Amino acid sequence: MVKQKPTFESIEPDFGHSFTYQKFDENRINKNNVWHFHPELELVYVNGGAGKRQIGSHVSYYTNGDLILIGSNLPHCGFTDALTGNTSETVIQMKTDFLGTDFFKIPEMKKIESLFNVASGGIAFSGKTKRKIGDKMEVLEYQTDFQRLLSILNILNELGNSEDMRMLNAKGFSFATDVKDNDRINIVFNHVKNNFREEITLEEISAMVSMTIPSFCRYFKKITNKTFVQFVNEYRLVHASKLLAEKPMSITEVCFECGFNNFSHFNKSFKAFTGQNPSEYRNELKTVLV
């Protein structure tokens, strides 16, 4: 078995810049799809399409694009791939003090400072905010460096005043600063990402991070506020949501493709997770997307 090495992403703005701006499209695909983390905050706008969000211990499925703000050192996965169907993806990355240690302490920056604090658990924006800010982020492509800086401050201020936001790790996500712990949780997340279709035992995963089963269970619950079994099942259910929306597969096929080996348990778990059984979910999504 090949273990995927956990990734720390080093982000260095170009010389003379205090932030990083990137735009991806069909000619330039964002290939950073492994679990990774970095000290910089990251604002991502996905224009159209549908896919999975994987941020901290949160996993969910988005449709009609996405706008997300990811806090410092919060592990996450790529949001687009060849099957997402989006038009483009715009990414802004900046340190919390990218304009100086005290800049965001002044009264006019209060909303942005609060936004940065809330972003520690990851935020998804919807409705008018997603559309309006998404448009503003796409315009950055045609602006000068100074215009971009002013636009980013304006974007952050509008996000700080928005009510169209949802915390993705509402119960908290404690990402330890110890390098050994960073490596451990990334090993776990990467292994689940690559092997969720198969059975993953506590014996197997705890051995991978050199812990006893009781120690691993306490460690994982402390960091994610979820049991390991709960996290894996949620990962499978989100993948089921994606397949139900995108693939012409039967519900039975979806069940087994996602790693469930009992159809009745899959139906019960899916309804508890989404509020609908798989057929209701698929039918409702069809009406939304038509």
Lay out the secondary structure.
Blueprint: E1 7-8, E2 20-24, E3 36-37, E4 41-47, E5 51-55, E6 58-62, E7 66-70, E8 88-94, H1 110-118, E9 123-125, H2 127-139, H3 145-161, E10 165-167, H4 179-195, H5 202-208, H6 213-224, H7 228-246, H8 251-257, H9 263-274, H10 278-289
Parallel strand pairs: 1-3
Antiparallel strand pairs: 2-8, 4-7, 4-8, 5-6, 7-9, 9-10
Helix pairs in contact: 1-3, 2-3, 5-6, 7-9
The description of the largest β-sheet is:
6 strands, antiparallel
Strand order of the largest sheet: 2-8-4-7-9-10
Helix/strand/pairing category: alpha+beta
Listing every helix as H and every strand as E from the N terminus to the C terminus, the arrangement reads EEEEEEEEHEHHEHHHHHHH
Low-pLDDT regions? 1-6
**Between the first and last Cα atoms, what is the distance in angstroms?**
43 Å
Helix content: 40-55%
Query: Which descriptor suits the 3D outline?
Result: globular
Radius of gyration: 20 Å
- Give the integer mean of the pLDDT values: 86
* Percent strand: 15-25%
Can you count the helices? Answer: 10
* Beta strand count: 10
